[in-house]
Amino acid sequence: MERNRLNNIKIIQDLCEKTDIVSIIGKYVKLKKRGNDFLGICPFHPDKNPSLSVSPKRKYWKCFVCGEGGNVVRFIEKYFKCSQIEAIKKISEEINYDLTKYQSLFTNTELDQKVKFMFDINSFLLSLYEQFLFDKKNILELEYLKKRGLDEQTIKYFHLGFAPNNTSLIKQILTNENEMFGNQYNKNLIWNNEQLLKTGVINDDLSVFLVNRIIFPIFNIDDKPIGFSGRTMQNILPKYSNSKENQIFNKSKILYNLNNVVKMQNIDSLYIVEGFMDTIAFYRIGVLNVVATMGVNLSPFHIKTIISLESIKKIILCFDNDNAGKLATFTNGISLLKNGFEVYVVNNFKDSKDIDELLNKKNINDAKIAVEDISDFITYFINLKINEKKVEKNVIEEIIKVMIETNDILLKNNHLQLISEKTNIPFEDIKSFFNNIAKNDDDFLNYDVNEIDDSNNKHNDKDNSKINDDNLKNIESINNKKLNLFEIGCKKILADFLFNAINFPELIQIFFNKIGFFMPQKYFPEYYNIFKLLLSYTNNAKKPYSLEDFLNYVEEKNGQEYASEIKIFINSNPRMNLKNEYLESGIKNIALLEKKMNEYKISELLEKIKKENDQNKTKDYFEQIKKIKEENKK
User: Is 206 within 8 Å of 171 (Cβ atoms)?
Assistant: First the structure.
């Protein structure tokens, strides 16, 4: 696996070097020369004015509106929604590039050969199940689905089928013991019992696994059938029976209907529901950007998959209106917030358990109104947790710890106001409580530097006569404590920023444009120096960039020890693929650091002036204040 990954990097570097990126992209986007680069309408978002820039010199493309960018292979991947390997093959064919020496990448590996028969069996089964559903003998099963509100178009969109009430028929067809297809039967499509057992078609006693059930086929992201779920039409348990897990079917890696969602253009939001029928209910009301979990909890793999759908920024959770559904909403909402998504929740369906039940009770309009009635996740959580005016302190603390995961300061204030209204606790008290928890939280990254409480730094004008060295030391101590808090937070933000810059080199230039100006080298030299090395590396190295290649570059310039330190630092930071909103928030916080430091210096100088009797020293203090204020205006 590692060998193939390294081969991929090598082939992409070579392919990009030999490809005229303007010529390739120009086949799909009309480009006009502008200076040294070319501009065109971006195909990856609704674009009216040319925002896609293609650089023939750097062999790189970038949209300055939606943020998409990369090399020519990445463009073909995005444009055709294909795999990296398929993109490489397509470009190679267009420029007559010889792939012979990389042939191992394009032939079936040993693993592919081991599982190929599973895909073949499932594809064949899928066609059988669909045929059986529309067979006149099974009219009752088709009528059952129509009574549930599914028309023929919906049934065919989701490839629904029917497994007949025969414990051996499917097995006989797959092993060619049944002459259902006569002479037209494809002799290559014959499988043995061992293969059928591994795929999960038959049980250990060789009886067919799914019998007398409506079939919901399950596809992977590449639109290949990897398993099936059978729903009984009678009042027996289990209601659903799923294919057993194997090398191609793993419930923790499956999002039902994702294969259809990835075909959609320019979607920025995604509904997540609990099951097949809820997904289909969304389709029936015209909402297509919906997936379902095979269970109720999102796995780390699910979240990584959603992150890979780069246009998705907003997640709307729509789990069942019961205790299990509410718990799933909370658990999944927290996970999604921590990964930088905007998270919303569909408000209760009142007298219905889920969207499918509501749709069958009401009508399409009512159901559509229901799924559009959403709250942001924190508001939902507050309403769920605070149902009466008297509420325990630990409940408010639990809510605040969830709030810390968000970066929107306006939303935070709205949420604090809502807590205040629901508990009758004064807003300022709630806000103070929030600040205390946020300051003590290990994750400073989401804490806004403007929220620091300056009340301890204020003195009563009536007590000026009492100002002495102890007061001044106290103020200096308070200021140092605050600056230490700033520095810890800013370092964590820089760590995240640097980690993401390794993976997304365009962030390096943003760093120097937006942060480097505000942050002299004396504050955080270790981070600043690494960013300088990254900038130098990206200006000199060939794309695509890689961590291994960067560390080799560092080793050449600064030695193995420094490269090892950077590697340890980078690998210690887990926050990948952070959203732009988070990074922008981090930039603002870092930019405020020096300003805040100067404000504290001014407060200390003012205190010195109040106790100083020497006019020359007082004059010097005022000059220092004047210089600091001029610095703050820059």
Answer: yes
| pLDDT surpassing 80 at residue 467 | no
Q: Are 38 and 32 in contact (CB under 8 A)?
A: yes
pLDDT given for residue 321 in this prediction: 83
Q: How many CB atoms lie within 10 A of CB 9?
A: 15
Length in residues, the chain? 634
Average pLDDT over residues 577-589: 57
Q: What are phi and psi of 554, to 5 degrees?
A: -60, -40
| Cα–Cα distance for residue pair 333/569, rounded to 1 Å | 29
The amino acid that residue 248 corresponds to is: I
CB 538 within 8 A of CB 545: yes
Look up residue 294 and give its two tokens: 């095979």
| Average pLDDT of the residues in 103-130 | 75
- Tell me what the pLDDT averaged over the chain comes to: 76
User: DSSP state, 184?
Assistant: G
> Comparing 611 with 29, which gets the higher pLDDT?
29
Question: Looking up tokens 């129509």, which residue turns up?
Answer: 146
Q: How many of the other CB atoms lie within 10 Å of CB of 573?
A: 15
Instruction: Please give the Cα distance from 136 to 197 (Å, whole number).
Output: 30
Residue 439 is predicted with a pLDDT of 64
d(CA 21, CA 634): 41
- C-alpha dihedral sign at 74, 79, 82, 87: negative
Query: pLDDT confidence of 445, banded at 50, 70, 90?
Result: very low
pLDDT at 346 over 80: yes
pLDDT of residue 273: 94
**295 burial via Cβ count (<10 Å: 0-12, 13-18, 19+):** middle
Comparing 231 with 64, the larger pLDDT belongs to 231
Joined tokens for residue 445: 């990254």
DSSP 3-state of 4: helix
Query: What DSSP element (H or E) covers 440?
Result: helix 427-440
φ/ψ (deg, to 5) at 153: -60, -45
For the CA atoms of the chain, what is the radius of gyration? 31
Query: Could you tell me if 130 and 159 are in contact, meaning their C-beta atoms sit under 8 angstroms apart?
Result: yes
* Helix axes of 427-440 and 393-403: crossing angle, nearest 10 degrees: 60
Assess contact for 268 and 312: CB atoms under 8 A: yes
* Residue among 611, 630, 581 at smallest CA distance from 268: 581
DSSP of 136-163: GGGHHHHHHHHHTT--HHHHHHTT-EEE
Q: Is the pLDDT of residue 456 over 60?
A: no
Residue 461 has pLDDT above 60, yes or no: no
Cβ atoms of residues 42 and 36 within 8 Å: no
Q: How far apart are CA 489 and CA 587, in angstroms?
A: 12
Question: CA distances (Å), 533 to each of 401, 498, 557, in order?
Answer: 37, 11, 9
